[in-house]
Amino acid sequence: MLALIGQRLVNSLAILLVSTFVVFTLVALAGDPLGELRDRQPPVPDNVIAAEEARLGLDQPIPLRYVTWLTGVVQGDFGPSVKPNQNIGAELAPRVGVTLRLVTTAIVIATLLALIAGTVAALYRNRIADHLISTSAFILIALPSFWLAVLLKQGGIALNKAANARILFTIGDVSVPAPKDFLPLMLDMAGHLILPTIVLTMIHFASWSRYQRTAVVESLSSDHVRFAVLRGLSRNRIVGAHVMRPALIPIVTVVALDLPALLSGAVITETVFQWRGMGGFLLESIANRDANAVMAWLLVAAAAVVFFNLLADIVYAIVDPRVRYGQA
User: Fold this and answer.
1) SS3 helix, strand, coil % of the chain, rounded to 5?
2) Which of the 8 DSSP states describes residue 43?
3) d(CA 268, CA 100)
4) CA angle, corner 77, sides to 73 and 79, nearest 5?
5) How confident is the model at residue 193 (pLDDT cuts 50, 70, 90)?
6) End-to-end CA distance of the chain
7) Cα 120 to Cα 17: distance, rounded to the nearest angstrom
């Protein structure tokens, strides 16, 4: 087991290194961070532009810039920002926690709902429960996330007005000013999580439940399940011990692969609900053509994707012992 984790970790680090170089190159070629400065009227003196190029490292070739950037990242420095007084790491760190709170909550709830709904739909295939779950899933899959976010936000505002009280939080990730005591602060954060979490959960739960349904249907028709039926085992034992366990591998794979979509959905959701998370940081960085800030966001996102795929490999080994011994 430890050897498997070590091998996957080495592979993950190699993938992360290659991906950061490719993305760094693309970001470096995407635009001129000093374009606005060059276009100012009256023109900015050449020595000022040259000083900014030197500060941002734009006067160096891309491979050397990447090595400099990577060396700084290892030391906790994400490089200089286009904004002279902005520390990229200090600005991004609290935003990572905000987005992680939203994405993690959505993943946990969506996975649990998908496991339940997909399994029920498979066990009652071609019956009313299956038709209801499948129809609901297809409707949710067809809904754009930004439209659902706007719809829920407007619905929350309308509900608050109708009740003449704040029942649902529709703006921000925490109240301003935030409660100082621990329990009130946790309750306040949980209240702000409700609507954004519903958006991310519903969009991804719908597609994940379809994968779970297919996996359970295939598992039900496998030879080992037929043998369990012939042995006279109870339905609950067959489903719990012989159907659900092998059916977990596809859903784990899908959840790990869908993390980039979850992060992109979080950008949209945070923008609609005006959260101060990684989404706002990315949009601001793109607007400012801040290459190092964009790279910092992409590095965190890439590290999250690599981590979740590593976690998926570990879950594979737990669910299917053959993975531990290199048989699958």
Assistant:
1) 75, 0, 25
2) P
3) 15
4) 95
5) very high
6) 14
7) 42
Give dist(CA 184, CA 187) in Å, integer: 5
Q: Which two tokens stand for residue 82?
A: 């286009």
- The gap from C-alpha 108 to its chain's centroid, in whole angstroms, comes to 12
> Would residue 242 be called left, alpha or beta, if left means φ above 0 and alpha means ψ between -120 and 50 degrees?
alpha
For residues 243 and 212, what is the distance between their CA atoms, to the nearest angstrom? 11
Segment 114-125 mean pLDDT: 90
Taking a C-beta distance cutoff of 8 angstroms, is the pair 249, 316 a contact?
yes
Q: How far apart are CA 195 and CA 177, in angstroms?
A: 20
Residue 3 has pLDDT above 90, yes or no: no
Q: How far is CA 156 from CA 35, 102, 262, in A?
A: 41, 18, 23
**302 in Cβ contact with 15 (< 8 Å):** no
Q: What is the DSSP string of 59-84?
A: TS-HHHHHHHHHHHHHTT-----SST
Q: Is the peptide bond before 177 cis (omega within 30 degrees of 0)?
A: yes
The pLDDT confidence band at residue 265, using thresholds 50, 70 and 90, is confident
**What pLDDT does residue 239 have?**
73
Q: What is the mean pLDDT of the chain?
A: 85
32 by DSSP, 3-state: which? Answer: coil
Question: Are the beta carbons of 205 and 116 closer than 8 angstroms?
Answer: no
**11, burial (CB in 10 Å: exposed 0-12, middle 13-18, buried 19+):** middle
- Considering 70-84, 146-160, 232-246, the range whose residues carry the highest mean pLDDT is 146-160
How many Å apart are CA 56 and CA 51, to the nearest integer? 9
- Concatenating the DSSP letter of every residue in 207-252 gives HHHHHHHHHHHHHHTSHHHHHHHHTT--HHHIIIIIIHHHHHHHHH
pLDDT at 216: 86
